[in-house]
Give the backbone structure.
Amino acid sequence: MENQLVRREARTEGTIVHLKNGASFGGDVLAVCAGPCSIESREQIERTASAVAKQGANVLRGGAFKPRTSPYAFQGLGEEGLRMMREAAGCNGLAVVTEVLDVRDVELVSRYADILQIGTRNMQNFSLLREVGESGMPVLLKRGISATVNEWLMAAEYIALTGNQRIILCERGVRSFDSATRNLLDLAVIPLLATLTHLPVIVDPSHGTGIAALVEPMALAGVAAGADGLLVEVHPDPASAASDGPQSLTFEQFEHLMRVLPAVARAAGRGVPAATLAA
Amino acid sequence: MENQLVRREARTEGTIVHLKNGASFGGDVLAVCAGPCSIESREQIERTASAVAKQGANVLRGGAFKPRTSPYAFQGLGEEGLRMMREAAGCNGLAVVTEVLDVRDVELVSRYADILQIGTRNMQNFSLLREVGESGMPVLLKRGISATVNEWLMAAEYIALTGNQRIILCERGVRSFDSATRNLLDLAVIPLLATLTHLPVIVDPSHGTGIAALVEPMALAGVAAGADGLLVEVHPDPASAASDGPQSLTFEQFEHLMRVLPAVARAAGRGVPAATLAA
Amino acid sequence: MENQLVRREARTEGTIVHLKNGASFGGDVLAVCAGPCSIESREQIERTASAVAKQGANVLRGGAFKPRTSPYAFQGLGEEGLRMMREAAGCNGLAVVTEVLDVRDVELVSRYADILQIGTRNMQNFSLLREVGESGMPVLLKRGISATVNEWLMAAEYIALTGNQRIILCERGVRSFDSATRNLLDLAVIPLLATLTHLPVIVDPSHGTGIAALVEPMALAGVAAGADGLLVEVHPDPASAASDGPQSLTFEQFEHLMRVLPAVARAAGRGVPAATLAA
Amino acid sequence: MENQLVRREARTEGTIVHLKNGASFGGDVLAVCAGPCSIESREQIERTASAVAKQGANVLRGGAFKPRTSPYAFQGLGEEGLRMMREAAGCNGLAVVTEVLDVRDVELVSRYADILQIGTRNMQNFSLLREVGESGMPVLLKRGISATVNEWLMAAEYIALTGNQRIILCERGVRSFDSATRNLLDLAVIPLLATLTHLPVIVDPSHGTGIAALVEPMALAGVAAGADGLLVEVHPDPASAASDGPQSLTFEQFEHLMRVLPAVARAAGRGVPAATLAA
């Protein structure tokens, strides 16, 4: 009854998820996914895509369908947002990762995305796991808010059972008793997962801490621990963001992160993506 | 941005969810939901329905679509199971509560159930919340595995916003650091919720503890704390159950619970359902 | 290496801790310990002792040495407070339970107390456990803020190894991810401990919830779950209390609790202490 | 009522704790504390001291008074162990850090140690905090098993109030719901504490993970996150260790850690201690 397909022993080499734009998860070069929590406007996503691409990000993140605790909070721009994001990514050589919330939207989101994200609230939405698996698209599977490592790998197994093993695990912090940070970023799972599964693992220090000032040090720590990439929230003006402002980096903060990242990446035996020649 | 519709102040009186068979949640008489974790066979569900009805249960619980951590675990009998359950309930004057996992199954499950259950893994599956809300059916909303009370009420608000306020909250234990019990049953939410919402609240001591020997004392404790009802797993032969055996009561254990329940219920100002004249 | 002395199998019958004033923990009659968090003045402790004795409490609680998170918070009146408390208890037929923080104070506190309390922060202060054990006094051992049941029983074993088995366990809530309550009261440990140890177990719904309005329902729930007694904070004027005001009952609230308690106690097969004829 | 003395604003520069052997916490060069969980024999501590000194450790760790969950577990060699450790350290140019459990032992332990360690179980043993503060010795204050950052800083404030600010904070993991690791190492507190206090902070990846294979990556992650040093368990033969074997590094594993550490340290703007010329 254990996980069969995603466990370490099932493959001699680690899985590398390659994207069309050259980005990869699990290889020698880190994947750097950056962008806003929510797509808010054409201008916002274009400016962000251009800025992060120049600094070396190779995947654009951004939400068009937003899972929000409150039904009164901003729920995202839907397909219109996806279209904006796809264009902004294309102009800057970036791939697109974005969340899908509903089994009925998998086909729609797949038209615009390179990676389908399963958010923390849906880690055990087994219908959705099967559906994104069937799509054949790469899947970024975030850890549930208090999921054990075993539960997380079993969720990946649901996807893998469809025949799709292009799965990227993403540690994004677990629920904590201490409100000093938004979540408790559990970096030890990175080396632990390397012993348990052949799947690549990335780190989201934005949700993992909830505090912009902690994102850079925790991104570096994640890479030092062996992560295959980063998922970072970047916004042109965090103070006015529709969601997750306090944890979003400004362009300047992201630039700084990308400047200090190579030394730590090198120490961990990794390269960083080359900046694309953005418009 | 706070919850508007489900909060205490939104109604002068507590919401009572009435079912056709006379069971109600939130009134003077407790609701007692009992039955197996999974529907396994016609004989299993019929024997259980008959036994629990005789002892005073007024709602039959049982899963036909099972959310299982492992994809290799028993996933339920699907529609065939729903049909068996409906018949077994009907013969014994019981209403039916059963879980729905997928937005595409809401209509199907609604044909067989009196209450749609949202399981702990789907508490923030917002698409599903909206869909069960739209169905107009009563909804039993289990607390997420580490959901705060605020997040739980916000999930209820998603349902209420569809115009459907026939919502029953169900405390089923939260994730704990101590593996001595399966979950940590948080009974303080019962009186706390009474100050925060007009919705009825019931307790699931089976998942809340994971240990059959603790079910009766925690059921009594829940009623003493003010719960509007119970959700209890009962199985003809727990040792051979397809799921949740260790926390399932035998018929004899359930009978004992129903014998000691009235005194505590009375002390809490409540009655217990009268046993139906089962076939 | 398991606990040997405190485990269930080590004794055929449950341990009953008897006090000189007739109160007992583990017998047919509940122990009801009530009083302020901190002893603040002669008038405060006298008024409280008189009030709670009239309602049926049989043990006076109150802190003279206070373990406070902040060194700038009120640290207690020390020996002067103990003297006040002893007198107030004596005039009202009450026994005294009070916390000892330092191995060097065990002898001093023993002169004034009937039960030495080990607070949650000191559950694994092994020197202190040995010292209170050696004193031969009854010991009330609170559960550590995130102690497992096994760690808690092992702490009791440290005491028992000194030859002193007059140990009372006290569940007072564990650390939670949800700030809606101060702690998460884990009532399932009551029936669980009954299977694991012969020691009596009481419940502290005041620290367990941190909210006065939740104290009565959780006290009743604790008794319904099988607790051998209660530890409740009562203060003449909670709003002006030096510590723990929000969770302290007024005299009226305590009176109400003691009025509704007998019915639940009876349902659980217990009696409540008779009110003493207070001066 | 907030912490006054240890907070960031109370000093313009970060506190550096200097030891006589040249080691320092908070300066440009990392402190590397290594050694066994328990001192077990003269040979064991001498071999370990020699090995870790050669690789660049500058502080020897080891317990002579062991706080053990079970009273039946090995409790340490006491003063005899301290003497062995002091000699082993002296021969190898190492300073000594060791735990003190009892206020009555502070003077004794101070005769043999350069740093007094307050263990996780005693973080809120306020008498002990005051006593180690009064000793004037440097204090290594481990985080409580589920202490909030605020509680931890308040514990440091208790020490600082004695006039002794030679305090080193040590993150060692917090209690988790997932038994996949022994504790959950909370590295985000490192950059967070840098904004809240002027005190140095080190990381214990041994207790933080409980698994030897995770110690190196988490040590590197800690340094990348900005830690001022490491506390690592090293044992000549982990499989036969009296305590904490599964998380102890062999000499070879420690050597490997010290070989890869400089690159990450450099990326974080730090140096590593030079290896001493061990006898």
Q: What stands out?
A: Chain D is about 35% helix and 15% strand.
